[in-house]
Amino acid sequence: MDEQPRYRAWFQSIEDPDERYELHEIVYRSRTGALLEVVHDLAELRKVPPEEWKRRFERREHATRWPFGSGVWGKKEWVLPGIDDENVVSMFEGNTNLFWAERYGKEFGLENLWIKQCGNSHTGSFKDLGMTVLVSQVKEMIARGVEIPAVACASTGDTSAALSAYAAAAGIPAVVFLPRGKVSVAQLIQPVANGAIVLELDTDFDGCMEIVQQVAERDGVYLANSMNSLRIEGQKTVGIEIVEQFEWKMPDWLVIPGGNLGNVSALAKGLDMLLDLGLVDTKPRIVCAQAEAANPLYLSYQRNFEVFEPIAARPTLANAIQIGNPVSIHKAIDALKRYDGIVEQASESELAEACARADRTGLFNCPHTGVALAAMEKLVARGVIGKDERVVVISTAHGLKFVDFKVKYHELRIEGIESQLPNPTIQLPARYETVRDEMLRQIERRFHT
Ligand SMILES: *Cc1c(COP(=O)(O)O)cnc(C)c1O
Fold it and tell me: What residue owns the CA closest to ligand 1's atom 14?
């Protein structure tokens, strides 16, 4: 008789493979303070041949059978194999579209540029991918009798939106700590609407992070920041999904914006599994893009990653990556070393103009995606990214969360930024001749000159 597969995963210190914990234990760091990672029993997973994994994942895509229609839970055996399906908290996140940025790419000679639209998701950012895993695990722990009064996070906006939505769906109290005045209205209203306890603190993200860690340690609330490696397990599916969308072919380059650096670590972790389990046999290169105003990883890269120094991050339009002391720094450096990585930066003006150029070709991306687009444009210009290579830029959030930035850009109201492609609205009296003359003049000017 066939033995039933027994897929297993556990927390393990990134510094000491012998230091392990069960996934239902409340533990965020190793005894020496290092981060943990979720490690899977690869020997058991290897018993399924690569072609069978591919077929299984493809079959589940967009299925309604709970919970496999989710891009994350369609890969459940690779994500969180031990959880009861009934404890999964999912909005069928993931399975986002890959946009062939044909017109935008051709502006600088790239034929094969794709944008992974992670912002087309329940709360409008990739943070949903990680939060479904974390909140599901919390629901499972509560069902097993572990006492968890609430889940909590510090956030630059998108993490709190995702946590609040998933916690509300599960009926678990959520507390979010936000830097006062530093998140967009759209980001702020999400946790408010979902009924989270929203605490606005007079500090920046790094300051909020310190407080939430204390609350987690002393008061038993469950920490939902990406320091908690459960989030990484969900986020890692993005790389797997991209490869699946290219019919299991690896692109040449993956470009991703980075702040706290959980997402770049997650991207690499997903690719690791594809390689380890034999679904692909080539490696892409990874580019992590940082805002010049918050570039500690870039500075470390300049010194071959030999030193890392936290900085005080300055304000940036890309507010979700205004982070000077990224928690996943060591995981990210490791990931970049494994994937022959590059770190590039973008100034405020570069990111704003890249966003505007891309928007003109039908996109509508967030400023963080603008950082990645600007970095990619620079690498193409320098000849590092070849014009015939297949490039995927990971778009992290929907532009609709950042309309204040776009409005100001088109009204020429961002200080220090020229706005090379403004498109102000035109106010006219409601009189046919005036309207017609102006309309024809505009069509002539824009499309025929
Ligand atoms: C969180 C976030 C990032 C940065 O991800 P990290 O894991 O912190 O590096 C980038 N873009 C958006 C829109 C985000 O919400």
Answer: 320
